[in-house]
Amino acid sequence: MRRLIYFPYIFLVAFILFLLSLPIKTTQKIRCVAVASIAPFWEHFTYYKPLFAFKLFQHAEEKVPGENANLQLTLENRLLSSQVDSVYEWLSFEERIDEDMKRLKNVSDIKDDLYWNEFFRRRNDELKQILEVELQSIPAKVIFRDPASWSSSVWINVGQKTNESLGKSIVAKNSPVVIGDALIGVVEYVEKNQSRVRLITDSGLVPSVRAVRGKSQDRFLAKLAHSLLERVRSQENLFSTPEEKKVFISLLNRLIENYSQEKKDFYCAKGELHGSSLPLWRSKGLLLKGIGFNYEFEDEEGPARDLRTGEASKEGFVKFNLLEEGDLLVTTGLDGIFPAGLNAATVSKVYPLQDQDYAYEIEAKPCVCNLDDLSVVFVMPPLGFEVANP
Q1: Could you give the C-alpha distances from 15 to 18, 65, 86, 245, in angstroms and in order?
Q2: Which pLDDT tens digit goes with each residue over 266-280?
């Protein structure tokens, strides 16, 4: 009878226990070194994904002459598109700062109405805070994204060395990460040359948000329309005739003009958002879940409101629904991580209230449409950065 040897099994168990007992700082260092090693290969792999997909799924009988040339053109177009997108995001962020400065100049007090006087003062303070962090924001490039935690985190190419060169701590734990005025996530770990960003689609990141309906909502839609307009003008192969392109551009311009009309903002229900932390192969769209949305308590935006009817507890206030599909969800600043006024998501579904419910549950879509194809993001200094860096 053959004698069993238990030593390899004992060694394996001991090794696993040893790995599990490593301190967090050590494991973070190991992960950081691994990412730094893999990042160059991962960046090239993202450009060559169409080649792998073609080889794996294209049947032999479907191959056509000249396929290698077509693949080469596809890869070159993908690389060029990535570079163009990076430049476009940079310019869009600069335009965003200019737009916020103009908005700050245009925000004025309505002296004959105490409520709207206070309303514009709060918007003024929000814009000042956002501009303060936007003017100190720095661009960063996504260098790695683990498919197993696709909806949870990405790695970017800025870290402690970046702070040393700037002379101030911009890239730090809890630094908000954005594209334009749209929330991407928050920095959760900083190393010398790279940092890890926890995405808004991660289940562990729970920003405090509020539904906004009116001018801010229309301004966000107008930005999307303007972005689409710029892309359509630069593309020549989207339409069969030049007349079709002119008609489409005319419709977009009319849409932007309609959205630019003066409206008031209504600040509705407040709640929290969280993601699902799904891996790449299980991702079915980057949907967010919203919980705890209500307006039970009076705040600076207005009196408490009835959950089902939206009727205010004080006279003189307009009645409105607390949540509707299409509402813009913006950060409130109550979580202590994100400044108030950043666009987080749009409401895509509002679940009906049950008999004993005290709050709404919703589904929402992130304001950043290309969250699966992140290339360039912007890192803001964390809230309280002036205190942290005297």
Answers
A1: 5, 53, 44, 64
A2: 889 999 999 887 766
